[in-house]
Amino acid sequence: MTDAHTIRGTYGSAHTPCDVIVAQDSRRLLCWYVVAGSININATYEDLEDGVDVELVEDVDHFTVGRTIETVQDLIDAIDS
């Protein structure tokens, strides 16, 4: 991963505010992301920026993990495992 950070976003029909943890691969093609506190990790080719509505992001891959993702390092560890 070359770029990993947290942005603000929303999820759900009520547009619930959330932190979105984002990690892009070294070629900046694939972007992995997770709503902080979730176990569902998704991947997209879209550039994710502050204010993103994750319900509108077109995912190309996903997986789940056994514990919630709370930090950038948690996401990096999940992707690398």
Q: Can you characterise this structure?
A:
With 81 residues, the protein is mainly β. It has one domain. 11% of the residues lie in helices and 53% in strands. It is built from one helix and six strands; from the N terminus they run E-E-E-E-E-E-H. The chain has one helix at 72-80; strands at 3-11, 16-24, 31-35, 38-44, 52-53, 59-69. It has a six-stranded mixed beta sheet, covered by helices on one side. A hairpin with a 2-residue loop joins strand 3 (31-35) and strand 4. The two termini are 13 Å apart. The mean pLDDT is 93.
Helix content: 10-25%
Radius of gyration: 11 Å
Number of helices: 1
Poorly predicted runs are none
The profile of the biggest β sheet is: 6 strands, mixed
Annotation keywords:
single chain, 81 residues, mainly beta, 11% helix, globular
List the helices and strands and how they pair.
Elements: E1 3-11, E2 16-24, E3 31-35, E4 38-44, E5 52-53, E6 59-69, H1 72-80
Parallel strand pairs: 1-5
Antiparallel strand pairs: 1-2, 2-3, 3-4, 4-6
Summarize the structure in short:
Helix content is 11%, strand content 53%.
